[in-house]
Design goal:
Stc1 domain-containing protein; 76 residues; three-stranded antiparallel beta sheet; alpha+beta; flat; binds zinc ion
């Protein structure tokens, strides 16, 4: 889909975003509400501060949290 067209549709509220994406939740970090999302790797709900930046990612963050990205591969 053409980006401009998609953006126009988005502005008009006609574009349905996939439910699996753009799912930000709220958590309390030191008593302060913060945006959070579930890591696709470990499945834990973590604040966005636990994710590295990803321009196209949900909330501008990668899908996997820092600890998962830094974790070395474990042999099955
Ligand atoms: Zn993780």
């Amino acid at each position: 889909m053409d980006k401009r067209y998609a953006f126009k549709q988005f502005l008009e509220g006609n574009l349905q975003l996939r439910p699996s994406k753009a799912r930000l939740k709220k958590v309390l970090v030191n008593g302060v509400p913060a945006d959070a999302k579930v890591c696709v790797q470990c499945g834990e709900l973590k604040p966005l501060g636990e994710y590295r930046n990803e321009e196209k990612g949900v909330g501008g963050k990668k899908a996997k949290c820092k600890s998962c990205l830094s974790a070395k591969r474990v042999r099955g």
